[in-house]
């Protein structure tokens, strides 16, 4: 079956580079026990934890378009960015290998957690070249240092490989990456039309670099659904978040419309964007009590593994809205964005001392206090 987006807009299918990496469509499932526990009748989950047999989560959908672009441009390497435990950097490593590309990860410091260790080991296992640009998230020198280190690596690879690596922004969020989630929205519309779930009133999704939420905000109405997206902020750059989200949506719409004028050229205002704040806690990748409670509820009642950086905080926002009584009678869709495939066999093949020295501290220092047996 063609991608849901291409089925509705065949001209996009002819013009947009795309390679099939993910296993689509991902299931939608009713969360009966969790819904009953919370007192909401119509609660569903979109299982994007299962986008790939080796590694799922939200990144493979973006990489289908991003890596296709790298291949079309004749690149041999891609270089991308993230924090030390970046799911995006790991997904890029895994899917680059599948697409016969090499990956370079420029990583930044972040709060320690067990998933950071596992993602680093697995990235190494899958052949990523890892660099730690040793600046904290809050540092003002951060971008300067990253630009400088990136410049060095780009030059080094130009000399070694004779080609510039393709740069993929953090989280895979660019117009090209966002198209992966426009397609995801069309996929959901197809599932609603097939009777797999009722049309959701509200879609709760984690928002980091905003590509996932932007794709859904654009794609759901374009696919004919009236669902409203609640983008739960997990990074903390909230002051400009609505503008950046609206701009990303509008630029992606303009791009798709320019390729195929049957795709709507929307023009979203900042005030149309619903970014939910209040669930971040101390900052990016610092787990919260509400988030970890949501993780354990989902594990006990839904049998699905979430985590503390993104999905726990997002489900906590949904739970809070239900408990306030604001959305009890609505059809709610929780969009699961985290991988649930077990990586421990891959991680076990690597000794952390084989990683560049700067990464050793994540293995030698304690993890944060709330990371207590909750994740895998
Ligand atoms: C990257 C990521 C997100 C955030 O997606 P964005 O498109 O960057 O907003 C959400 N959940 C998980 C598990 C992620 O790895």
What labels describe this entry?
376 residues; alpha/beta; six-stranded mixed sheet; four-stranded parallel sheet; 43% helix; binds pyridoxal-5'-phosphate
- Strand fraction equals 5-15%
What about the largest sheet? 6 strands, mixed
Strand order of the largest sheet: 1-2-10-7-8-9
Q: N-to-C terminal Cα separation, in Å?
A: 34 Å
Can you count the helices?
14
Number of strands: 10
Overall average residue pLDDT: 95
Whole-angstrom Rg: 20 Å
Low-confidence stretches: none
Find the structural class using helix and strand composition.
alpha/beta
The helix/strand series, from N terminus to C terminus, equals HHEHEHEHEHEHEHEHEHEHHEHH
Ligand kinds: pyridoxal-5'-phosphate
Shape: globular
Task: Give the helix proportion (percent range).
Answer: 40-55%
In short:
The protein has about 375 residues and is of the alpha/beta class. The chain has helices at about 5-10, 10-15, 30-40, 60-70, 85-100, 115-125, 140-160, 175-195, 210-220, 240-260, 290-300, 310-325, 345-350, 360-365, and strands spanning about 30, 40-45, 75-85, 100-110, 130-135, 165-170, 200-205, 230-235, 275, 330-335.
């Amino acid at each position: 079956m063609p991608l849901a987006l291409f089925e509705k807009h065949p001209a996009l299918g002819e013009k947009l580079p795309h390679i099939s990496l993910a296993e689509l469509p991902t299931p939608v499932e009713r969360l009966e026990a969790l819904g009953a526990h919370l007192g909401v009748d119509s609660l569903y989950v979109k299982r994007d934890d299962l986008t790939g047999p080796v590694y799922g989560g939200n990144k493979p959908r973006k990489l289908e378009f991003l890596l296709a672009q790298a291949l079309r441009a004749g690149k041999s390497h891609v270089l991308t960015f993230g924090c030390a435990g970046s799911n995006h950097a790991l997904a890029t490593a895994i899917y680059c290998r599948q697409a016969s590309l090499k990956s370079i990860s420029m990583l930044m410091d972040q709060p320690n957690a067990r998933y950071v260790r596992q993602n680093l080991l697995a990235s190494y296992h899958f052949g990523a070249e890892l660099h730690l640009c040793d600046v904290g998230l809050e540092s003002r020198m951060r971008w300067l240092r990253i630009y400088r280190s990136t410049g060095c690596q780009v030059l080094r690879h130009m000399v070694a490989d004779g080609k510039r690596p393709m740069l993929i922004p953090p989280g895979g969020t660019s117009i090209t990456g966002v198209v992966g989630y426009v397609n995801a929205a069309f996929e959901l519309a197809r599932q609603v039309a097939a009777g797999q779930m009722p049309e959701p009133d509200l879609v709760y999704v984690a928002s980091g670099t905003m590509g996932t939420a932007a794709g859904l905000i654009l794609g759901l109405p374009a696919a004919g659904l009236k669902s409203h997206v609640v983008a739960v902020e997990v990074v903390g750059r909230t002051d400009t978040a609505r503008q950046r989200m609206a701009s990303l949506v509008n630029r992606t719409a303009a791009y798709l419309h320019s390729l195929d004028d049957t795709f709507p050229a929307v023009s979203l205002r900042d005030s149309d964007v619903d970014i939910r704040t209040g669930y971040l806690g101390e900052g990016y990748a610092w787990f919260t009590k509400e988030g970890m409670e949501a993780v354990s509820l989902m594990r006990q009642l839904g049998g699905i593994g979430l985590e503390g950086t993104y999905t726990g905080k997002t489900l906590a926002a949904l739970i809070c809205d239900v408990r306030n009584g604001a959305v009890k009678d609505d059809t709610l869709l929780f969009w699961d964005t985290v991988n649930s495939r077990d990586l421990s066999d891959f991680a076990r093949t690597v000794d952390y001392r084989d990683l560049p020295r700067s990464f050793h501290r994540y293995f030698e220092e304690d993890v944060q206090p709330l990371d207590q047996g909750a994740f895998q």
